């Protein structure tokens, strides 16, 4: 299996906004290891083109999503500098194929974290602060007909990230119980608590550090870590305003348009 060639197919699908057939259909022999190697090929290519790695994202952290994909583990992807959006600037929906929105808690690190053996306490010590975040996910696979290996190959189906709120120390903050209200144009879509993310978002970040350690990759000082969705992904609608308001750490808001953003 030519990982570099498959990576180019996904990059071309993103560039042209022309989705491709599921890799699990085209390459039924694909393994999870193949999928991560395809992802890394894409990231390496983007970096050679001038992009910069600024963080990581964790996906499939909830029991519901794991059952949907028939897996018992999350997945991850990379965040690049051109994927990060400024809160308050509308996001152009024509930049995507079929975007969806997820509410997350983002960690910003003040120390490197590298597995194996990273614990939740290690994550607390290495975290500078947390903020509320949105992740825009998008699939370069046609009609979201994805299996686990498809989304892993496709950089965890990640597309954009928006950070909001106020930088908040983890000192005295109970992420397990932290509440969140998700609204569209002021109407409640969903509510959740931090426990929806593997019981505690700290556990998700520790898992990520240990999983990446298997490939010799560290979570770096200054990186943004999206710790996983608290609710199901919501299809994005042009012209709508979405807000995720968290207890203690503030809110994040995003509007989608067809403007030049």
From TrEMBL:
Residues 83-255 form the Fumarylacetoacetase-like C-terminal domain. GO terms for cellular component: cytoplasm. GO terms for molecular function: 2-oxopent-4-enoate hydratase activity; hydrolase activity. InterPro entries: Fumarylacetoacetase-like_C, Fumarylacetoacetase_C_sf, Hydratase-Decarb/MhpD_sf. The keyword Methyltransferase does not apply. Keywords: Hydrolase, Lyase. PANTHER family: 2-KETO-4-PENTENOATE HYDRATASE, ACID HYDRATASE. This is 2-keto-4-pentenoate hydratase.
């Amino acid at each position: 299996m030519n990982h570099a060639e498959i990576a180019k197919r996904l990059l071309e699908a993103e560039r042209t906004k022309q989705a491709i057939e599921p890799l699990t259909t085209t390459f039924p022999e694909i393994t999870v290891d193949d999928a991560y190697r395809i992802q890394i090929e894409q990231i390496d290519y983007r970096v050679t083109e001038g992009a910069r790695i600024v963080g990581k994202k964790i996906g499939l952290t909830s029991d519901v999503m794991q059952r949907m994909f028939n897996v018992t583990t999350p997945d991850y992807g990379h965040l690049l500098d051109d994927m990060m959006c400024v809160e308050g600037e509308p996001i152009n929906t024509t930049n995507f194929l079929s975007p969806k929105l997820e509410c997350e808690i983002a960690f910003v690190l003040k120390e490197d974290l590298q597995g194996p053996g990273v614990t939740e306490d290690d994550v607390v010590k290495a975290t500078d602060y947390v903020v509320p975040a949105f992740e825009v996910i998008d699939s370069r696979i046609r009609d979201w007909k994805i299996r686990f290996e498809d989304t892993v190959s496709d950089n965890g189906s990640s597309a954009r990230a928006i950070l909001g709120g106020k930088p908040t120390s983890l000192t005295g903050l109970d992420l397990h119980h932290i509440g969140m209200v998700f609204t569209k144009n002021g109407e409640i879509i969903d509510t959740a608590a931090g426990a929806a993310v593997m019981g505690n978002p700290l556990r998700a970040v520790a898992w990520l550090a240990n999983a990446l350690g298997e490939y010799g990759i560290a979570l770096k000082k200054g990186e943004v870590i999206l710790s996983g969705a608290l609710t199901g992904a919501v299809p994005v609608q042009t012209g709508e305003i979405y807000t995720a308001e968290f207890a203690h750490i503030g809110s994040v808001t995003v509007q989608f348009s067809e403007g030049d953003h």
